[in-house]
Design brief:
Helix 3 crosses helix 4. 21% of the residues lie in helices and 32% in strands. The protein has 555 residues and is of the alpha/beta class. The protein has three domains: 256 residues, Alpha/Beta hydrolase fold, catalytic domain (Rossmann fold), CATH 3.40.50; 66 residues, no CATH class; 199 residues, Jelly Rolls (Sandwich). This is CocE/NonD family hydrolase. Keywords: Hydrolase.
Length: 555
């Protein structure tokens, strides 16, 4: 059809029951009296941003495929009226927006929703309200429990760096402009040095927000002052199983929201598909830190679709137009290290489970096939004034790239424990969830632990594959206890001759608030002291990692 044949209408009003007007840009075939299924994206990041027109998904191609595409600013953002408070309005507003779109003169009454991250959540929130005209959704890199998935639930380590980056980097400027309080010089001073400000403590009194917007929702969230009914209303996990609307889930192996995306997929009740590529939250090109993965942007999936736009079109064509589904199997995974896509019937994928045990005391130990009969222990140092830095993975904070990086220099620090396997005698294809079973103890009431799996090549460079960070609140000090921790899910092949490595640290800054070794963290306090946690291995406290390997002919 081509862009000359696309009719564009800007800031079309959608009036909600409470009188609030949301505004949308509409792109549709320029055909008199034509009616089409509608695909709608509801976002808080400005519908005029080019990324949402031709980068994440190509709107003109979706129109060419016979859809009317609507990009809508959510309540209180950019062209839309009302007051913005993250997540709490998206269910009811989404229901009304879907039904409004279904009634438009160019609509045939069938609506699909698409979008990633926050606007993946807007789809799930609308879906659990059961709008009758909603026929399919496509949530990408998203979450169903937003407060916990963004910041961390009560008792968890708090991803303060992620929340600070999101609020100051993506939300605040428009908020200040709407309130006629925008001082560009002051704002840009903080924005341009955001990476440094992530170390500012305490996070509950974060200086940039205290200065720029002291009455912001930021402080409600950071201090845990959300109304209980809001927490219940915005947590969608317990309602996803009720849904029958078809869903296309997409995630990235290096996306900060991979685990929440997988959790939403597994909880979902309706027919659904799952695609996971070697993608980060920032881009889906195949560039992931210091690595590049072929066939991540084009020739995607077992069926080698041209790109993510084509995948969306094929999905919506089936559910909104009744066309045949040309996708081989419902789970499509990119196998890193083999640089190819494979198709599966379900996730999680059955395979072979192996255990690798932590062995040898000290700071540099081994991963072995069998536990040592004699117990030993390692001291894990935590210096709050010099925390272990985050690098790679699904980081999603200012000044830090996601993806794979050489982390061997971090593993050389005296506050990082390292356990490495012997060189592998054959390729080792991790496929699924990797877990840690770790015995430990702490001299203080807060125990923090970072676990990271890396691939060590013959030159000694170690590239991160998956990682996690966990906090435990303790009632008994200096007493051994066991933690069972999900380190993460992956599809990654370590090549013959490489080594698999686990490193353990007690901090991961500035992504998470830092344990101050006195019963507090940098979320609420500033001053701390050096402390030592204990990691046990061998004997009756046989710490280990549990890896899932691909079964023969799985892919």
């Amino acid at each position: 059809m081509g862009e000359n044949h696309i009719k564009v209408e800007k800031n079309i009003p959608c009036q909600l029951e409470d009188g609030t007007i949301l505004r949308s840009d509409v792109y549709r075939p320029n055909v008199e009296n034509g009616v089409y299924p509608v695909l709608m994206l509801r976002l808080p990041y400005d519908k005029e941003t080019p990324r949402y027109y031709d980068e994440y998904l190509d709107v003109p191609r979706m129109v060419d495929a016979g859809y009317a595409v609507i990009l809508q600013d959510v309540r209180g953002r950019f062209a839309s009226d009302g007051d913005f408070y993250p997540f709490i309005h998206e269910g009811k507003d989404g229901y009304e927006a879907v039904e409004w779109a279904a009634r438009l003169p160019f609509s045939n009454g069938k609506v699909g929703l698409f979008g990633m991250s926050y606007h993946g959540y807007t789809q799930l929130a609308a879906a659990v309200e059961h709008p009758p005209s909603l026929k399919a959704i496509a949530p990408v890199m998203t979450m169903a429990e937003p407060w916990g998935d963004i910041l961390g639930n009560e008792g968890d380590a708090h991803a303060v760096g992620k929340f600070e980056t999101w609020v100051l980097g993506s939300i605040l400027e428009d908020q200040l402009k709407r309130e006629n309080r925008y001082d560009s010089k002051k704002f840009n001073q903080y924005y341009e040095s955001l990476e440094e400000w992530l170390y500012d403590a305490p996070a509950e009194e974060w200086t940039p927000m205290k200065d720029l917007s002291p009455d912001s929702f930021f402080f409600d969230v950071m201090r845990g002052n959300l109304a209980p009914e809001w927490k219940v209303m915005t947590n969608l996990s317990e309602r996803l199983w009720q849904l029958e609307i078809p869903a296309l889930f997409m995630g990235g192996w290096f996306d900060a929201l991979l685990m929440p995306t997988l959790a939403a997929y597994k909880a979902y009740g309706g027919p659904c598909m799952l695609w996971i590529g070697p993608w980060t939250h920032e881009e889906m090109t195949g560039h992931a830190g210091e690595r590049f993965f072929e066939n991540a942007k084009k020739d995607i999936g077992f069926n080698q679709f041209s790109d993510t736009t084509e995948i969306h079109i094929k999905f919506f064509d089936h559910w909104l137009k009744g066309k045949p589904m040309p996708i081989h199997k419902p789970v499509q995974l990119y196998l890193m290290g083999e640089n190819r896509w494979a198709a599966f019937d379900e996730w999680p994928i059955s395979g072979t489970v192996r255990e690798l045990f932590l062995d040898d005391g000290g700071r540099r130990g081994k991963l072995t096939q069998k536990p040592d009969s004699a117990g030993s222990e390692s001291q894990l140092k935590l210096d709050p004034s010099n925390p272990v830095p985050v690098r790679g993975g699904g980081t999603l904070i200012a000044g830090h790239q996601s993806g794979m990086f050489d982390v061997s220099d971090i593993q050389e620090r005296d506050d990082v424990l390292v356990f490495t396997s012997e060189p592998l005698e054959e390729d080792y294809q991790l496929l699924g969830l990797v877990k840690g079973h770790i015995w430990c103890s702490s001299p203080t009431a807060i125990f923090d632990i970072s676990l990271r799996i890396s691939d060590v090549d013959q030159s000694g460079r170690a590239y991160n594959v998956i990682d996690t960070f966990h906090r435990e609140k303790l009632g008994k000090l200096n007493e051994p206890f066991c933690l069972d921790i999900e380190i993460g899910s992956t599809a990654y092949t370590l090549k013959k001759g490489h080594c698999l490595r686990l490193d353990i640290a007690a901090s991961k800054a500035p992504l998470y608030d830092v344990n101050l070794n006195n019963g507090t963290t940098t979320k609420t306090h500033v001053k701390g002291e050096i402390g030592f946690e204990t990691i046990y291995h061998g004997g009756e406290m046989d710490s280990k990692i549990i890896v899932q390997l691909a079964a023969d002919n799985d892919a």
